[in-house]
Amino acid sequence: MLYSRWKNIVIWLVVLASILLAAPNLISNNTLSSLPSWFPARKMMLGLDLQGGSHVMLKMERFDVVQARLEAAVNDVGARLRDAGIAYTGLSGVNQTISFHVTDPGQLDAAKAALQPLTTPVATGAWIGGSVVEARISDDAEGGLKVDLTNDGMKYRLAQALEQSIAVVQARAAELPEFVPQIERQGPDRIVVQVPGLVDPQRLKSLLNQRGALSFHLLDSSMPVQQAVDGTPPPGGNVLYSMDDPPTPFLVQRTALFASDDLADLSISVDAAKDEPGLNFRLTPPASEAVARVTAENATRPVAVVFDEQVLQTVPLNQLITNGAGRITGDLSVEGASDMAAFIRSGPLPSTLTVVEERTAGSGLGADSVRAALIAGTIAAIAVVVFMIAFYGTLGVIATIALIVNLIMIIALMTLLGAALTLPGVAGIVLIIGMAVDSNVLIYERIRDEARGGGSVTQAIRRGFRRARIAIIDANMTALIAAVVLLFIGSGSIRGFAVTLIIGILTTVFTAFTLTRWMTAALVHRRQHRNLPKGIRTGIFDGTNIAFMGIRRTIFLISGAVMILCTIGYGTIGMNLGIDFRGGSVIEAQARQGEADIVDIAARLGELNLADIQVEHYGNARNVLLRVPAQGGGENAEQSVITLVRGELEESYEFRRVEVVGPSVSGQLTLQSTFGVLTALAAILVYIWVRFAWQFAIGAIIATLHDVILIIGLFVFTGMDFNLTSVAAILTVVGYSLNDTLVVYSRMRENLRRYPQMPLPVLIDTSINQTLSRTILTSATALMATAALYLFGGGALQSFALVMFFGIVVATFSSIYIAAPVLIAFRLRSLRPLRGRAARREAATRTPA
Q: Has residue 531 got a pLDDT over 80?
């Protein structure tokens, strides 16, 4: 019965390694530094919602990249034609097409030959190799030529621009030396920047979303400035404006004299005489030589110092540059000069980066969240442990040890993988506690079934674990599918929840079939039990013979009516969509002194003309929650809201949490969530179809849809915010519901083979009664865990816990009264009887119904 020696060694080595990896999380940094070098020192990362910090998502503007590429291509075409001595007219670019007319039709072929290098495939540098054609040339009968920039080529340029933008963002974020930013690419045009500890991301955003292009242009004196403003600037000229209020126009040459790429050195200094900060720069030798040649002919000609298409200052060339060095002033503050230096050192962004999402948690809120999460998790664990020991005695103690090791392994794996624990991740751990208990209950109840059928207790344990294995794997696979879908559609804290859930499912299966089995077998072996250990009290459920299917039609009618009511409510009342799906801002603030005055806040914010701001107390009298609807002016309008609200309230209130979601992100999240839920249901349907008969798959999906519709009804009739966390809760309930359903289905499938002539309603009732103890015990432990989460997990998790609590109740109901009767409606026939070795093994382990 016991494992072989090498299996025992492997099991306990895994447990010991988990303890070592998890131990640093309970040891202070000072103590860790004094331990031997071989002792692990890495700690589990905390998400921004638990430690405080800022999450900013930036979107690269495709239009800027396309325009820059088009302008460069137009200049390239013109230069190639001039170098080839080909006269042309009407050179212009629109969208991704460049067109012009060759003056001499006889030079048409020569023009094509001159431009042919533009069509040469460019190596993309992908690891699988490959190239892309960036342009195609075509002509017409009248001497016109077109150069079309291909979509594939533009995708290549966009990818290059994003990689360049990431490098620039990393360089600029390094200007915040007291923080350690985490930067990663997300999708084809997004960059996510997370900065633990940074609770006011305003300077971070100003560093990241400004292009930072510095260039120096000679002023164009070929026509008066006002004439260029009123009409058309001369060829090669451009009108730019100063940073003054009102701005002053300047006519400058389009081609830069030199730019930030030509700077060899840059430093900040303050002119003591004028108390004026500025930037001292030195040109590279090639640029210095080029500027010297221009200076010889244009010594007193004014030069415009241009930063992001705005004129900082104008100064004669010979006063700006002396021996290859110069100084930029232009009414800069010390911080402004520092930021500009950061922009110049990092190089310009190839495209504007727009802030499309911002989520910030203050350090105080993070500490409160950690405290609440620890309390909720501890209470949930204690309640579950007491419950298990009360019903299983010694076996309950074994389940408790396995549960503790399971939690240690989760912490160890998250530490090893560098996965961050988020607040929803804590909820995932609480949920895993319930799932781990479910696995142990399934095993113990199977062992009891086998023990009642006769034979030794050792044989009962062996058969019980073998029979429970299939049901546990099937049940956990459905939860795993839902978690994997969440991992791909979620972001931030939701992805943290998915990672925690996936790790927890894997550790639960491992501990159930290795550690629990080893300890159970060791207990029986050492004490030489002839019967199961004492203290098992689940026999109170034995002998139940409830005719569940006798009222199936009535239940179907009632459930159908409730589903219709929820559907009508959804169509008429609708759900209260949170900012994740409709955009806008949510701000949690705390009064610096005394209680929060929501009437005063509403009045002050009402003067900002932000429309329909909701102000309410949150948690206690000092805290207030502000909901600002989407402004309808694009991404920048949403950012302006936060600036205005901060300016109005920050003197009296501390901002504990700020969440801003722009329209592009909210639209994307809506599509991702809808696609994710449908994908999860489809994947689960396929899995059940393969593992069971098709009727089981249909029954499971109908039961799941029943649960989802009722949960949507909960949101409709309670008015709770429906956000990404709600999607996570729904998918988790889907996994739990199918877990419950598949346990019952697994027993039905077994009984269909045993009793092929038994009437289906009777067989279903028998199967449900046989698994009733498991259903009740598992639901009770899961409800206790979620109740602890609701009562002690803090406001951020209350809605999640409420949905989970409601979902567990609904899922338990549907696994009996929806999933099972569907099999009758679809006329499930008996499965093919087992034959050969499978039949002999089944007969040898058969237990009474």
A: no
Higher pLDDT among residues 394 and 489, named by residue? 394
**Residue 618 shares a structural domain with residue 695:** no
Sign of the C-alpha dihedral computed for residues 297, 301, 307 and 308 taken in this order:
negative
**Which of 512, 407, 427 lies closest to 26 in space, CA to CA?**
407
| Spatial distance between the Cα atoms of 469 and 413, rounded to a whole number of angstroms | 23
The CATH number assigned to the domain holding 656 equals 3.30.70.3400
Work out how many domains the chain is built from and give that number.
4
Looking at the structure, tell me whether residues 524 and 485 fall in a common domain: yes
Angle at 639 between CA 68 and CA 636, to 5 degrees: 35
Q: How far is CA 495 from CA 491, 570, 676, in A?
A: 5, 28, 13
Instruction: Give 79-90 pLDDT, tens digit per residue.
Output: 898 888 888 888
Supply the range of the domain harboring residue 149. 62-157
The answer to whether the predicted template modeling score (pTM) of the entire model surpasses 0.85 is no
Backbone angles phi, psi at 703, to 5 degrees: -65, -40
Give the residue from 735, 773, 711, 820 showing the smallest Cα distance to 435.
Answer: 735
Q: What is the CATH number of the domain that holds 295?
A: 3.30.1360.200
Residue 655 sits in the same domain as residue 672: no
Q: Is the pLDDT assigned to residue 847 strictly greater than 50? A: no
Q: Which tens digits make up the pLDDT trace of 727-746?
A: 878 877 887 787 788 888 88
pLDDT in tens, 306-319: 888 888 888 888 88
Question: Looking at the structure, do residues 645 and 538 belong to the same domain, yes or no?
Answer: no
Q: Exposed, middle or buried, 47 (CB in 10 Å: 0-12/13-18/19+)?
A: buried
